[in-house]
Specification:
- The protein has 426 residues and is of the alpha+beta class.
- It has three domains: 199 residues, FAD/NAD(P)-binding domain (3-Layer(bba) Sandwich); 92 residues, D-Amino Acid Oxidase, Chain A, domain 2; 59 residues, no CATH class.
- Helices cover 36% and strands 26% of the residues.
- Strands 1, 2, 7, 8, 9, 10, 18 and 19 form an eight-stranded mixed β-sheet that branches. A seven-stranded mixed β-sheet has the order 5-4-13-14-15-12-16, sandwiched between helices.
- Strand 8 and strand 9 form a beta hairpin.
- The longest helix has 24 residues.
- The radius of gyration is 22 Å and the shape is globular.
- The structure holds flavin-adenine dinucleotide.
């Protein structure tokens, strides 16, 4: 291990946060507000590209609490009031308006270019007093129970050691500590592949309440997201099961083009579209770690668990866990403890959040859920309960929970005894 350099790295921190994405920046801000000395180590130099551009309405109370609204409004991000699920030929469309959900009181959110959004969050944490080291990668960490952690990081020069009472892993899907401790678990055979890019030249609706809607095109073996980022830029991506990829050997461009061609509604929208920048790919997502907390260590955001992006839950969960993880770390530091009941409750709550979304995600890939999604008639407020989850209202209580249970029961029944018509997807 390298020798500790001179000040400021020689002074122990209250917490070292690995990663300056939404989870890390949020945690850092809350620690600074609690009067703690926090260091963020981020391997990239911001602004940097990141996928994950559609936010949820229940992000907004957190933005308000953090005083981020002026900067977010100033950035001119596209406003998002709803989501539309569309069958490939456009014959069926399920429109969700967040403002109309019986169990939601947050009507809108934003579609964001993550390079800009993440930079705003990180600079905001810095302005609150957090020390940020960019272009520096964490290479190693050592936990000494009862004392704290030593983190070894490097930015091209010799490695440097930093000490703290807590290590907060916000390293995203790099999953620094979870991988090191062998804690990563996949969700069954949920192995996906995504191909995505930014496009210009796509006309958007005139109606300002619909312009920023996220569109989800559901094909039989794939789905597309269509996220309007500005009047002349759309983020477009497809997610497909890896087994489908293996069936034929195509380049990502060929696969993307061929799948668009099978989706006439989308193909028509893209008639004059031009790609800006590269088409990118990512494989094998969706996992969680078996533990989110241990003495002196907390995992937040994707470093706790990563979910298939169908319901745009990633940034929301990253910031929620960033906040609650940091609040519990600050309390543990005040009590001079390495782990607390509060941190264990954090783990339990985070697990519940991940489970709630995963149940929706698993169902989304099954035909009966799609039958209901497109043909629901508002009975007993069940669609409102689904809207609540899609908006990020995860603490809606029993009135949301029993409706969701009933909804999933009907979806299960639909598989054996059709309650609504079975749709032909493509
Ligand atoms: C295809 C796809 C589509 C998605 N779409 C959406 C969407 O529409 N809406 C949504 O909310 N979410 C979406 N997501 C998910 C979203 O991108 C993530 O959930 C979110 O970015 C998590 O934030 P985070 O802070 O935990 O991690 P990240 O944003 O990934 O931040 C982690 C940071 O840690 C840094 N880092 C990693 N290792 C080290 C190291 N060793 N040392 C120092 N720094 C390190 C990285 O450089 C990075 O900046 C999508 C994801 C994918 C893959």
């Amino acid at each position: 291990m390298a020798t500790t350099e001179s000040s400021p790295s020689s002074e122990p921190y209250d917490a070292i946060i690995v990663g300056g994405g939404p989870a890390g920046a949020t945690a850092a801000w809350f620690l600074a507000k609690a009067g703690k000395r926090a260091l963020v180590i981020e391997k990239e130099t911001f602004p940097r590209f990141h996928i994950g551009e559609s936010l949820l309405p229940y992000n907004l109370p957190l933005f308000e609490e953090m005083g981020l609204m002026p900067a977010l409004r100033g950035a001119g991000f596209m406003e998002k009031y709803g989501a539309q699920f569309v069958l490939p030929d456009g014959s069926q469309r399920a429109e969700i308006e967040f403002g109309k959900g019986r169990f939601t009181d947050q009507p809108m959110s934003y579609q964001v270019e993550r390079s800009k959004f993440d930079d705003i969050l990180l600079r905001h944490a810095e302005a609150a007093g957090v020390e940020v080291r960019e272009g520096m990668s964490v290479k190693d960490f050592q936990i000494e129970e009862g004392t704290g952690v030593t983190v070894t990081a490097q930015n091209g020069g010799p490695p440097e050691d930093f000490r703290a009472k807590f290590l907060i892993d916000a390293s995203g899907t790099a999953n620094l500590t979870g991988n090191r401790e062998g804690l990563k678990e996949g969700y069954g055979n949920h192995r996906k592949f995504a191909i995505y890019g930014h496009f210009t030249g796509i006309p958007l609706p005139e109606d300002s309440r619909k312009r920023g809607d996220i569109l989800i095109y559901r094909l039989k073996d794939a789905w597309f997201w269509f996220i309007p980022l500005s009047d002349d830029k759309v983020s477009l991506g497809m997610v497909v099961d890896r087994s489908v990829l293996q069936s034929r050997d195509l380049t990502p461009e060929e696969r993307f083009g061929e799948t668009v061609a099978r989706c006439p509604e989308l193909r028509d929208r893209l008639a004059r579209a031009e790609r800006v920048g590269p088409l990118r790919t990512i494989a094998d997502f969706t996992y969680h770690n078996r533990r989110f907390v241990s003495p002196h260590l907390v995992r937040i955001g994707d470093a706790a668990g990563f979910l298939d992006p169908i319901f745009s839950s990633g940034v929301f969960l990253a910031m929620q866990t960033g906040k609650s993880g940091a609040v519990e770390v600050a309390a543990a530091i005040d009590q001079n403890l390495a782990i607390t009941p509060g941190l264990r409750r954090y783990e339990k709550r985070t697990r519940r959040y991940l489970r709630t979304y995963f149940e929706m995600i698993e169902n989304f890939y099954r035909q009966p859920f799609i039958d209901f999604l497109f043909q629901t008639d508002g009975k007993w407020g069940m669609p409102d309960a689904v809207v609540a989850i899609l908006a990020g209202q995860l603490d809606g209580g029993w009135s949301v929970r029993w409706r969701l249970r009933l909804f999933f029961l009907l979806v299960k029944l639909q598989a054996r005894f059709p309650v609504v018509e079975r749709l032909r997807i493509d």
